[in-house]
Amino acid sequence: MDREGPVNNRLIPRRVPLLAEEQRQAVHDGALSLLNQVGVAVDSYDLRMQLARHPGVSLREGRVCFRPELVEELLSRPKPRPWEPEQAEQVQLRVGCCASHIVDPATDELRPLSWADLVEATRLVDAMHTLGVSGHAPGFPQDVPHEMRALAEYLIGALYCRWGGTFTASCPLRAYDYYLRMNEVMGVRSSLPLYVVSPLRLSGESLAAILQLIDRVDCYSVSSMPVMGATAPILIPAAFMQALAEAFAGLSVLKLLRPDAQVSFDFMVFPMDMKHGSIVYGSPEMSLCEMFRLEMAAFYGLDSISTRSIRSMSKRPDLQAAMERTGSAVAGVLMGSRSFFGAGMLSVDEVFSPEMLVIDREIADYAARFARGIDCGSEAMSVESVLAGVTQGTFIGTEATLRHFRDTYWLPKLSERRMLSGWLAGGGEDMRARARSEVQRLLSAYDFELPREKAKALWELYAKAAHELVGSDGLPQGVRGPRAG
Question: Strand 63-66 vs strand 57-60: parallel, antiparallel, or unpaired?
Fold first, then answer.
């Protein structure tokens, strides 16, 4: 535990940096060496030829290689700096995405996510905006044609959440024009993701969409998902070298194709369960990877350096979810992170649970109180504070207790703290039941409404896209747009 300084006299639980400066530099140099010696496989012949015209780029057996000097120039990164933990009091939560299933809070049924489910889930996300929670629609509805799921995800997010729409579902190339037009309605800048395929390959849907729209979009993000022991080396530092090489390759390609573009990059490596072959969130290895990533992100001056995940492999908000998420959250605040991504998501990000989302707020608040540390100011170190209680025979009514009990003690909303008799007398309700009640309370306070002209324009675009892509209204039975009443 380190002393924070003479101003606030607070002892903050904090770990020492995981990586030495020379180790961060070695990982960076390794990534540059990979791009120079091995390069990235590019399936498109035309793209390979286009890239090869640039100085610093060479071709080797279908792979595109980049000289380190070129990559450094395109990165335009600030001077490396040490990882410095954030000092924010509250841990911010960002709701996850990509869910295809939901745990029904009323029945505990695990089932495919419907349009109606997603509307309710998105309303809940918005209703928690005053509690340090942000996000979009947390998944995509399974009761619409698959060609329409990305646009349905965007539409629901825009209609029911103040953070607007986005999509994570697979999006047909023909639907991207409607995505750009929806962004115009919402008055937001369009951005496209580039997902580099591990190990070190540029191909797939995201690249195809970018090549199709390169003259219309000038904002991009690059990322990849290498899995240790499967699509990346099993050892963490080497896996991060690959992840960074993949991110640098994507950034370099986009900057060469569109020099005026704004291109951001992120990177992460993921542990795997060697028995079941799945990515493992909430594991100790995941927390170690997050530590590694946060310190390397500071090396590149990335804005997202404090963000880490709060997810688990459990399929319901049960004991496993509580164990994995609390362990992950406490490890996260010890790293100095004050922003967690993936709130409400289970089974990596396949399942959304309204209960889990409100429980995650409680877990994050628990971790934040731990991270706030111990007050060691003059009053806390004073003998008089002991004498006052001894004189009165109790400390319940002392001035210090009345003045400090709110900032000393964290008061949870969902956790049960009564003794057995009091709990039984109160009905014996468990935490999940209290979480379900909190979900309903939050939904009853929902008050967001998208301006009518924007909502109407979005519905019209969705209807046009559905007619073109699937030859129908693209809506589940019982759902109607505003024009149909």
Answer: antiparallel
